[in-house]
Backbone:
């Protein structure tokens, strides 16, 4: 069974690499509810642990994955945070890609046993700018090559980092303070960048239970309240724009569509939001200098 899993992982990674080489209009994404609790395996198919939470950045920086190890590598029931790009995605080997996807941790136990870890009741303070300094240093040589690029120019980057589990259910308001809805779902691309979020806006629109997708870059994050410890998320959008916004469907049979590049691109086009994946590709091409004439 482990041999079959390992073989499937290698085939899946090959398929993913081929897809990445093509010129997709938008990235394929993962839903946070799909990721929470997902098992992560070693290249040999051994169960490493499961995803306990995600730490996300406002703006274009990559997310962190927090794994619950369950005793793997002799580390006990501790939590380990790592940059998303340390993990390797395994796509289903099919034309429709409707099968399950997996995440592989390509690290040997001898190294992983030295990884920065913490107890479930002793999370690091992710509000501090340097909370991940030791984590970044430890995994510096294990990042996926495609993830080693700077945040694209023009993207608002905040020093704040928040746990996805704590953001879910947070109010989203207009710049004038009027409530639009609650933040519910996150979509994360192959580089760990949050791509879009979903809001429950039925009450604001007077339309009952309605959920829409909004580009992550269109949200603004800050801290407010009397003590400065209240999460404040704002979105500049009109009622008419939200009424026509792409509707997010949480049903299991709609997940493939909600992760599909064409659907993702439609979300950005609806709001007139810059497609960061095209900007990143253009910047990458502009960095290539022609050979000097001999």
Residues:
């Amino acid at each position: 069974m482990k041999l079959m899993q390992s073989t499937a992982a290698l085939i899946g990674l090959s398929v993913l690499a081929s897809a990445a080489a093509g010129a997709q209009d938008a990235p394929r994404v993962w839903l946070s509810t799909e990721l929470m609790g997902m098992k992560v395996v070693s290249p040999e198919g051994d169960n490493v642990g499961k995803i306990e939470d995600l730490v996300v950045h406002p703006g274009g920086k990559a997310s962190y994955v927090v794994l619950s190890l369950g005793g793997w590598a002799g580390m006990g029931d501790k939590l380990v945070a790592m940059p998303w790009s340390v993990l390797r995605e395994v796509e289903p080997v099919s034309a429709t890609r409707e099968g399950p996807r997996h995440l592989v941790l390509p690290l040997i136990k001898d190294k992983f046993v030295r990884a920065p870890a913490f107890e479930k009741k002793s999370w690091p303070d992710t509000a501090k700018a340097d909370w991940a300094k030791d984590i970044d240093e430890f995994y510096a040589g294990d990042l996926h090559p495609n993830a080693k690029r700077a945040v694209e120019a023009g993207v608002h980057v905040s020093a704040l980092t928040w746990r996805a589990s704590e953001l879910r259910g947070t109010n989203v308001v207009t710049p004038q303070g009027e409530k639009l809805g609650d933040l519910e779902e996150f979509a994360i691309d192959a580089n760990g960048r949050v791509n879009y979020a979903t809001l429950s806006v039925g009450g604001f629109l007077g339309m009952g239970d309605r959920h829409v997708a909004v580009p992550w870059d269109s949200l603004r994050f800050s801290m407010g309240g009397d003590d400065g410890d209240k999460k404040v998320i704002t979105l500049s959008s009109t009622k008419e724009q939200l009424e026509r916004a792409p509707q997010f469907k949480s049903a299991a049979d709609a997940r493939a569509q909600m992760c599909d590049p064409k659907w993702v691109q439609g979300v950005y086009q609806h709001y007139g939001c810059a497609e960061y994946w095209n900007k990143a590709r253009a910047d990458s091409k502009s960095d290539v200098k022609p050979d000097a004439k001999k």
Summary: The two ends are 57 Å apart (CA to CA).
